From TrEMBL:
It comes from Strombidium rassoulzadegani. Pfam families: Arrestin_C, Arrestin_N. The lineage of its organism: Eukaryota, Sar, Alveolata, Ciliophora, Intramacronucleata. One of its GO terms (cellular component) is cytoplasm. Residues 421-450 are annotated as: Disordered. This is Arrestin C-terminal-like domain-containing protein. PANTHER family: ARRESTIN DOMAIN CONTAINING PROTEIN, FI21816P1. GO terms for biological process: protein transport.
Amino acid sequence: MKSGELDSFIEIELYQDTPFSCGQPLYGTVHLYAKDNIPNVGQVLLTLQGEEQVVLNLPDKASPKGLKAVTKIHPIVNERFVLFDYAQFENSIIMGSYSYPFTLYLPDWLPQSHLCFNNPDPKKPGLLNTFKIRYNLVAAIMSSSSAEGAPKIVECEKQGLQNIEMQQMLNVRRLTILTPEYSEALLNQEIKITSKIRSMGLMGSGTCSYTCKFEKDVLYPNENVKLTVEIDNSKCSKKIEKYKIKLLRRTQVFNLKNSKQIYTNDHIVISEKVDSKCEAKKTEKKDFEFRIPQNIFLTQAEEDLYKIPLIEKSLAAGPSSSLSGRLYKVQYVLQFSLKHNVVGASQKTMPEAQIPVMIMTPSISCVQIQKPKIQQHPGWEPYAFECIEFSVPPESEEKNEYCKFRRWLIKKEMEFVAQQQKKQGSKVEHNFDNDAAQQEESKGGQDYQQ
């Protein structure tokens, strides 16, 4: 290839289609074309970067629009790998073409790539908060004169190197959805609630109880799911008027220093009301079926996904995958409630049952592999270095933090639900067939202390 055909560049060529799987090898090559000699070269580096990022529109009286965009970031992984050290070549790259093949084993503990939106103000459909997990591979030439631990990219103006750094976004998925680290299975969930029913004044109408049974642990878009409820109204003198079922998507953001919740948003994904036929002094068993909405992300044009103000309101209401991160969390809660035929300002009806569920959507389709420039030049004949294998340390501290934080959150959620329903004078019983999962949740409260 003639030197005049191309300006100097560095790029990453990957040999697989997106998405990439946690715990699996990622094969690729870093290509470098130096139009002229490049002095003061330290190393050619490959960096795996990953982070949680949240952009919130928060109230701000000083802002003309009354809102201020606040960005919060939590790094997940930032590992550097040396493809080649030029100290043995007098810290200089001679003009020419070079290829540095590599095999990078992605850690099996990485959370999957994630994208979620919510609308904090229904009156402003174009206003969206953004929640995402993103990964990048970065190839760069680092200077030999930089201080250790803070390498600088080689200056390019005098050396004719236009693109001395290149980033390739990665779409990472998890092969196994349910793992001990992130999502302990809650199989055959059963919640029983018993409460006294009062109508006008302090007049008692008896006691009612119901048991919710939900046999699913993971839900998928477009899937039909069923909730079974057994109602015992035999000790109550009032008939049941209506049943109500909701599926909420709860988005939460946490303070990284003390793990306190600093933001929460509940969006109703599904809301249905059903008339009841359960009379006073009777029992009833009823099945409720509903469909999980389709993930809108997969049906939109790829280029529209990054034009945040132009995203349709329905896109912000898409299910998105459940996620338990350090910075933010997306959780789904299935709520069931019933209403008796009672009147009066001091009436008391049954409290609602809250069942945590997990929704898994297909991998995000908006991440594309960039086409390497070398494909445009059939005469590309670089000097190829030996392939190097890299892996992120398996016992990363970040992995341990994710595991403990997940268990701690589950324990706190169950405590909160029990406390709220106890205040309402109700008896709540939680039963899980998966004893191992329940033990892990109890363990989490001891492991994670801030």
